[in-house]
Structure formats: structure tokens, C-alpha cells
Amino acid sequence: MAPTKSSKKKPKAALAFQSPNGKSSPHPDLDALVQQTIARVADKWTLLTLEVLDQHGTLRFTQLAGLVDGVSQKMLTQTLRQMEADGFVTRTVHPVIPPKVEYTLTALGRSLGEAFCSVWTWAETNYKAIEKARTAYRERS
Amino acid sequence: MAPTKSSKKKPKAALAFQSPNGKSSPHPDLDALVQQTIARVADKWTLLTLEVLDQHGTLRFTQLAGLVDGVSQKMLTQTLRQMEADGFVTRTVHPVIPPKVEYTLTALGRSLGEAFCSVWTWAETNYKAIEKARTAYRERS
DNA sequence: CATATTACTTACCTCACGGTAACTGACGTA
DNA sequence: TACGTCAGTTACCGTGAGGTAAGTAATATG
Fold first, then answer.
1. Taking a contact as any Cβ pair under 8 Å apart, which residues of chain A between 68 and 97 contact chain B?
2. Domain range for residue B99?
């Protein structure tokens, strides 16, 4: 029983809610919005692309393809379109042949990079602790 | 052409590498490790669980199931096991019947929460800008 | 006329993520 | 004897993320 949701009996209450009333949020559920935003932004390719653009400044498509280690053209395009739509990068098309398209971080994109900087730093200082924890866990079981 | 990798011609060089030499990393490729760590940690359920545990302190399984909004038992167990293995939570089993298992963040887990705090804050202050960018993008195309 | 170049689309296909629901174990209680 | 409780585990199954490879447009060059 207890399938996380949907039990035809009494819902037990007092546990499964986070904002049925008004609380004090400016929006109905800011938490959800923020969570959703983070989920979008914490995507693998987005993170990698963000970092590469942050380090190298303006880059063309093929340069990105080379620097974003392991990305396929399809995913790179998709990621860049997404980031453009979200306002993280500007996409500048130079009407020449062969095509020349340049990508640069916007201020918003750069601020996102800074925000993730602390996570990056955390990972740098703590990945050894994680590895140790994993080994310990493996031996425990 | 240019399928991101594997072209039998000259690899063009000067583009597709990040640490073929020694640089100054203590490990062969610290960047990859860190990226990998972030990817693991930036998982949807991990993030949500982390936040709930950060806000509520010690919780039992069913309490978490109620608070982590939308998680299935399967994913909750999986996430918690993962977090335990990584050293983010402690799992305390009280040998009683019915079972009682309590989860608490470790110091490492709490530090991770703090690191993500800046991202959380960023999302709070910038999600409107993102929405605006999206609307603008939609109208542009 | 064929080829190279850049920045993509598009079609196709696979596999792993994750949801649903049922089952387990050990005991107290009705 | 049947049921409820908690904390899972397991089997099954569908969707969709994402990889691969080929195609496209437009022109300069040999």
C-alpha cells in the first residue's frame, strides 16, 4: 500500500502538502518555480557550455563543438537554442558564406556562471570526501 | 560532415582537448571529476530531498515521501541510498516493529546545501528575467 | 563540374530513467 | 485469523533523452 499518492482511504493529512493555503509567497508556489528553474539550468550540457563560454568569451559553433567535450551537434544546437531562449547567450549571425555564427554570454548568463561557481568550488574541495564515503559504503555492505 | 568525433581525416587539432598535458592538476582531469560530481548532485530528486532535509532536520521515510512532493517510493529509496553512499545523509535504523528509519544530513550534505544556496538565490532573483527572455524569444521567432 | 566549408536539420533507433502497482517481513491488535 | 503499519523491494512497461548519420543551403575555389 501507500503508493505515494492516490489511496482511496483517508489521506492521513498533516503530511502531504506544501502550499494549499496562501502562506506568504508572492506567487502561488515560488518554490516550484525556482525548483523548475534550477532543474532546467542544472542540465549537463548547459552547465558545460556555460563554463566553456565563460572561460573563452565569444565562440563560434564549431569551436564550441570542439570545446564542450563529447557533445553532439544535435545537443549543442539544442542547448544553445535553449540558452538563447532563456536569455543566457546571444546568437550573432554574420551573413557570410560559409556561415559564421557567434555565441556570447549575456549578463544573465554570466551571473548564472557566478552562482554555480560556489557549487563548482564545493565539488573541487569535496569530491575526495565523496569518493571516500563511497568506498566506505561499499565495504559496509 | 564533422560528426563531433571520428573523422578519418586530420583532426584539425588545436581545438578538441582540455588537458592532454599536465597543466597543474593534482589528478589527470580534475575538471571531468568535478563536472561528474556536479552532474550527480544536480539530480532533481537529490536536490529536492536535500532541501527538505535541510529545512526539517531528521525525518523518517514516510515523512520524506510526503514532503518531497511527487517522488515515488522507488525514487526516494534510490535517491536516499545514493545520498547515503555519497556521504550526504546518515541512515539510522531503529530495530523496532513496525520499522523506523531516520535520515539526517551529514556535515558534507549540509555544506552541499549551502553551496547550492547561491544557485537557489540566483533562481529566485532571476526567474522573472528568464521568463521575460523567453517571451521575447518567442515573439522574435 | 566536383568539392570544401559552416551551421545547422532531420530521421531513425536505442536504452535507461522513472512511474505504477503488487509483494514482503515482522509484529501488535481486533 | 485477518488486518494494519513502516520501509522498503521487485517486476513490468512506456516515454523520451540523446546518439548516429545523412541531408541541406549557399558560395568560393580548383
1. 69-73, 76, 84-87
2. 30-140
